[in-house]
């Protein structure tokens, strides 16, 4: 007997795959964020920090950090049956910024991770995405012992456009990171729709 499609069940869904960047300063928690949500073992390109790097690696506020991303972090998360995100964590140190252009190719949007103890560390990432018109949001990683500020205070300190979302998150917590990723996808989709409307006029 030949079974009809309804009897065999639905055909497999071909998911839409989207590329999201995770950027920010040195030691802000990008590797932790990718690892918290990735459903595969994250690909990490980390090297140990050495004495030779001390003159260029500012460890103020992250004295316990012993390694750093030198190329990228890569992870994957399925938000829905039909939506898969590929996450690319960028290196935070200035000497590795040349890789950002390569990593940002084809990205739907970006998360700029911020640490209120060293807020200036994320200025470069904010400037990068603003100059390239890549939609992004700022996620404040709430480190233990760090002062907590209202999102409007963070927005003012970073001189952000009023349309850029600012969220508080814990990069160690899967559900917290998922909320950030859902928000950046929604923001990027709204940004793309707005641009389509502007070009249609």
Task: Write a structural description.
A 7-stranded mixed β-sheet has the order 2-3-4-1-5-6-7, sandwiched between helices. The chain has helices at about 5-10, 30-35, 100-105, 125-130, 150-160, 175-200; strands spanning about 15-25, 45-50, 65-80, 85-90, 110-115, 135-140, 165-170. The chain has about 200 residues and is of the alpha/beta class. The longest helix is centred in the last third of the chain and has 27 residues, at about 175-200. It is built from 6 helices and 7 strands.
Spell out the blueprint of helices and strands.
Layout: H1 5-8, E1 16-24, H2 30-37, E2 43-48, E3 67-80, E4 83-89, H3 100-104, E5 109-114, H4 123-131, E6 136-141, H5 151-158, E7 166-169, H6 174-200
Parallel strand pairs: 1-4, 1-5, 5-6, 6-7
Antiparallel strand pairs: 2-3, 3-4
